[in-house]
Amino acid sequence: MNETLRGKVALVAGATRGAGRGIAVALGEAGATVYCTGRSTQAGRSEMDRPETLEETAALVDAAGGKGIAVRVDHLVRDEVRELVARIEREQGALHLLVNDIFGATKIEWNKTVWESDLDFGLRSLRLAIDTHAITSHFAIPLLLKAPGGLVIEINDGTEAYNGTRYRNSFFYDLAKAAVLRMGFALGHELKSHGATGLSLSPGWMRSEAMLEAFDVREDNWRDAIAHVPGFAIAESPTFVGRAVVALAADPDVARWNGQSLSSGQLARVYGFTDVDGSQPDAWRYMLDAEAGDVDANAYR
């Protein structure tokens, strides 16, 4: 995939860690210029209070072969997003790819009803998951439309096939992820007549920094966790969804996916890319099949 996106400009909103970092680095590997935004920098952490920084992500983009530009932006603050887009236009003259990967919730109260949940945390999570995406799209898409063939990708947790009929174990989380799915559909509708494409994309069970910590493993020994949770065998690295984004951005016929809900495992079978271990994990197909009976997660890699 090297050099396939040389000359292209991408904005990865929410690039500090997890899927956002994996996407930014994969875009760098393909030669793109990547604006990496979020709230955690060397100068201070966001409310998530995690150690990863935007500067680290930008440096990884550079090391991969692209150009990484770290910009601290609170995507709930309209003036900051407006200035970010103005800066991209001043410095690059165009924007070809917008990836909305913003969330940043510090607390999800699993298996609690809406009346049992902490209302302040719940409403804050909705603002972080929904308002940030709407604000960013509002200001960034006009610049994106100045160049033909623009692409907007809404990063989500779960596909329409899965989320559409299943409760995600939290009123607020369920609502947030349903909204992002609908954003991909709505943007596809609005962008189509302008020669651009909008869609939603979900990684599977992703080995983010926080997930590895939760299982007390590292990326180099993550399989040790399978002994305790067999389903973790389907886990994928953040690089996998990054390669899915690169495949979409480099596809001259990307409009065929307009308005659709996609997954990294699904796209790997179409475009032929693999995860870092050479496999093609299809987590959402596994999870759907696992509901019908006992299946081996390793068979879905």
UniProtKB/TrEMBL annotation:
Residue span of the signal peptide, if any?
Answer: none
Q: Could you name the domain of life of the organism this protein comes from?
A: Bacteria
An example Pfam family from this entry, by short name, is adh_short
The protein, known as: NAD(P)-dependent dehydrogenase (Short-subunit alcohol dehydrogenase family)
Q: Which organism does this record belong to?
A: Pelomonas aquatica
